[in-house]
Amino acid sequence: MVDIRFTRGWSDLQSGEYWSYAFVWCLDGSPLIGPDSIARNLNQYYDGLVARNSEKRNIPVEMVFKTNTVLNPLAAEGTDIKTFQGTISMLDYMGKRPMTLHLIVHLKSAGLTPSFFISFPLSLTVIQFGKDFRRYGQLFAVFNRLTAIRFRALAEFVLI
């Protein structure tokens, strides 16, 4: 993971921004990137996250279940190479209950080098970038700022 940004209400059970955040991965080389490989990596990431946090919070082992990520292709948005929309079903270790996160995955070229960015805005409610800007304004602001920072940093690093 290259970077992660949280909304103000990310960890507040009472907030409409609960579990709303964005992160970016940077992948070097020419990996095969598709919905199955992204889902597999998200499952591994969230299974580890749940395991670490369940132990700290004394969550019974029988409450913990394997993360299940489902991604479906969308028409590529803007400068995306590929765009996917999907869900991540997992244990909410803060609320101690099952939950489903909604996400949009943006795969972008990092420029002249064989590198790629994969960016993920996530929320407990379905995200539709063109339609939900007002409702999820802070999440989009976080996502846009994060993506811009990461692209600028890589551009400066590899002299794109």
Number of strands: 6
For the largest sheet, list the strands in their spatial order: 1-2-6-5-4-3
**Separation of the first and last Cα atoms:** 21 Å
Morphology call: globular
> For the report, how would you describe the main beta sheet?
6 strands, antiparallel
**Percent strand:** 25-35%
What is the total number of structural domains? 1
Unreliable segments (pLDDT under 50, ≥5 consecutive)? Answer: 129-136, 150-160
What proportion of the residues is helical, as a percent range? 25-40%
Give the radius of gyration. 16 Å
Topology pattern, helix = H, strand = E:
EEHEEEEH
| Assembly classification | single chain
Structural class of the helix and strand makeup? alpha+beta
Task: Let me know the average pLDDT.
Answer: 76
Give me the number of helical elements.
Answer: 2
Explained architecture:
The chain is of the alpha+beta class and 160 residues long. 28% of the residues lie in helices and 32% in strands. The protein has two helices and six strands, in the order E-E-H-E-E-E-E-H. A six-stranded antiparallel β-sheet has the order 1-2-6-5-4-3, sandwiched between helices. A hairpin with a 7-residue loop joins strand 3 and strand 4 (82-92). It is globular, with a radius of gyration of 16 Å. The protein starts with a strand and ends with a helix.
